[in-house]
Every structure is written in structure tokens, then in C-alpha cells.
Amino acid sequence: MKVTVLEQTDNTLQMRVEEVRPGLINAIRRIMLAETPTMAIEEVVILENQSPLFDEIIAHRLGLVPLKTNYDQYVVSSDCTCEGVGCHLCQAGFTMEVEAPEDGFIATTGDLKPQDPEVVPVSDKIPIAKLAKGQRIVIEAYARLGIGQDHAKWQPVSTMAYKMIPHVKVDTNKCDGCKECVEVCFRQVFEMQKDKAVVVDEKNCTLCNLCVETCDVQAIAVSHDENNFIVTIESTGALPPMTIFEKGLDVFRKKYEELITLLPGRVPKVTPKKPRAKKKALPKKPKKKKEPKAPASKTKTKTASKSKTKKKK
Ligand code: SF4
Ligand code: SF4
Ligand SMILES: [Zn+2]
């Protein structure tokens, strides 16, 4: 596999990936969507909710907030020494206490106070609830590592797409300069130069063949490579797109090695594990008080749609 970066920003990455079968690139796409772990809010404790939204709606909205993820700091809670109860090694806490100073005040992700400064919402402008003057929301929330296969909130990409590399050729000897290909191509692949159509942005072509059908003198030929692709990754902001790609390849490699061990007579190649960066000490989460009689609105809510909702008595 040969990879060339074509364009890169904080949240997007376009690459040319060559010498790879379509099945393999699709497997990597699916792994990036469904099996690359990220942090997302999994548990919300509602201490006070005077907003017009149900507790579960607020919890659901919080769950879908993309959070910046640091792999080296956290372990999946099911693999943690706390056995999934939740501790500073496997979860990051947030608190939020807002009271609307005026009608129409919008509580946003900027009101979430993170326990770990490295696990924060990707934007502080995501609305959570609109409040009337004096209405309050007080919550605690806990984010954990998870994968998109379990819930879409753990998906690190909003888009991961690939297309076969297009080739567009114009036979200038046949071209009569009618400009129809320039008008019909919605991806601005052609330009007129000296009364002839020329290809100016070949990689933008979607292989729709409209130009071929439009050109009356058959001057245009459109084809594509079978094993070379243009891959576009758009991150939610949880991870840099290159990290998502690298992590996707890493998960693929582990799956491949696991498959090899299942073949009869094959000895698996042992890959040395990358040492985990030392966990920096975080302030201990304050113990939740056990109150004999909690307020009627105190609700502990799992943000995943399949999870049960518990009302604390
Ligand atoms: S449609 Fe065909 S003939 Fe017309 S400008 Fe394009 S290539 Fe030339
Ligand atoms: S195949 Fe479609 S996208 Fe590609 S150059 Fe022709 S009209 Fe444009
Ligand atoms: Zn733990």
C-alpha cells in the first residue's frame, strides 16, 4: 500500500492510497467507523433539572457531544482494574451547574466543567437546553472509551469515503470548442483554453459520465483505476484524521493476526506491544453522597439508547 497525502486540515484529510484491493480499503473504512475507540459521555447524574426537557433527552444530547480523546490516558472500562465500576483510569468526569439569567438563555457545552483538561468537548457552542429566567440545570457526567459498533456517539468520523482514482482525457483534435462539457460538469473538471476543452482538476471527477454523453464528437474518455483510491476522512474533532487512519490500520492488523492464529498449523507472529504512556495523576473524583432521600428529579441516566434509566429513590 502506498499512501500520499493530498490535503490536510485539523479535521479533514484527503489521501491517495495506491496498490490496494477494494475489499481491503472498504474493511479499513468500516473499522474507522465502527471500531476506532473514542471518548463519549456514557453516564449522566441529573441532580436538578428545571428545563422543559426530560432528563433522558439531556443525557442523550450530552452523549452525542464529540469529546477530544487521548488514548494513552484511559483504558476501556471493561478492561480496567475497577471492573467497570468507573475510576480515574477509565472515565473522565464533568460537572455543570447553570441558572438562566434571562429568558431564552441557552446552556451549552461551554458550561460543562471537565475534570481532565485533555478530555473536553470539541466545541463550547453546542446547545444543550434552552431555559427561561431562573431555571436551573445541575448535573454530573462521566465519559468513557467506546466504539461506534456499540453506539454512534463513539464514531470518530462524520465521513469516511473513498473513490477509485478517475482519469479524464480530451482529444483536442476532435474537440470543436462547443463548451458543453464545461457547462454540464458540476465538479468543474474542465476549462476552455484557446477554444479547446482541457482537464484542470481530474481528481474532482465523480465518474458520472455526463460529459461523455454530452460530447457529440466523442472527444472525451473517462476511466478509473481498480486498485488506486482517493480516500477522504472527516473527523468529528474527537481525534485528528491521521490518527483515526493509523488506529484503523492498527485494529485491522490485530484482526489479521488473530485470524492467522485460527488457521491450522500456523504459528502467530507476536507483535511487541507499544508501551502505554504513564497515567498522569488526576484529582480523585469526590465520593457521591448517599442521601437517604434524594430530590425527586435526581436521575442517573445512561446515554446509550438501549441502556436502562434509573430513578434514584
Ligand atoms: S463537449 Fe466535446 S467538443 Fe464540446 S468542448 Fe467539450 S470536449 Fe470539446
Ligand atoms: S464524468 Fe462527470 S464529474 Fe467527471 S468530468 Fe465528466 S461530467 Fe465531470
Ligand atoms: Zn476503572
- Mean pLDDT value: 86
Shape estimate: flat
List unreliable stretches of 5+ residues. Answer: 287-297, 304-313
State the order of secondary-structure elements, H for helix, E for strand. EEHEHEEEEEEHEEHEHEE
Supply Rg: 26 Å
Tell me the major beta sheet.
Answer: 6 strands, antiparallel
Number of DSSP E strands: 14
Instruction: List bound small molecules.
Output: iron/sulfur cluster, zinc ion
Structural class: alpha+beta
Number of helices: 5
Element layout with pairings:
Layout: E1 2-8, E2 12-18, H1 22-34, E3 38-49, H2 55-63, E4 91-99, E5 105-108, E6 113-114, E7 127-131, E8 136-146, E9 157-170, H3 180-184, E10 190-193, E11 196-199, H4 210-214, E12 220-235, H5 241-262, E13 299-302, E14 309-311
Antiparallel strand pairs: 1-2, 2-12, 3-8, 3-13, 4-6, 4-8, 5-7, 9-12, 10-11, 13-14
Helix pairs in contact: 1-5
This protein binds iron/sulfur cluster (SF4) (2 copies) and zinc ion (ZN).
Key features?
313 residues, alpha+beta, RNA Polymerase Alpha Subunit, Chain A, domain 2, six-stranded antiparallel β-sheet, four-stranded antiparallel β-sheet, flat, disordered C terminus, binds iron/sulfur cluster, binds zinc ion
Please provide a written account of the structure.
This protein has 313 residues and is of the alpha+beta class. The protein has a domain at 38-155 and 283-311: Beta Complex (RNA Polymerase Alpha Subunit, Chain A, domain 2), CATH 2.170.120.12. Helices cover 17% and strands 33% of the residues. The strands form four sheets. It has a six-stranded antiparallel β-sheet, with helices on one face. A hairpin with a 6-residue loop joins β13 and β14 (309-311). α1 (22-34) packs across α5. The radius of gyration is 26 Å and the shape is flat. The termini are far apart. Residues 287-297 and 304-313 have low confidence and may be disordered. The structure holds iron/sulfur cluster (2 copies) and zinc ion (ZN). One iron/sulfur cluster is lined by residues 168, 184-185, 187, 189, 205-211, 222.
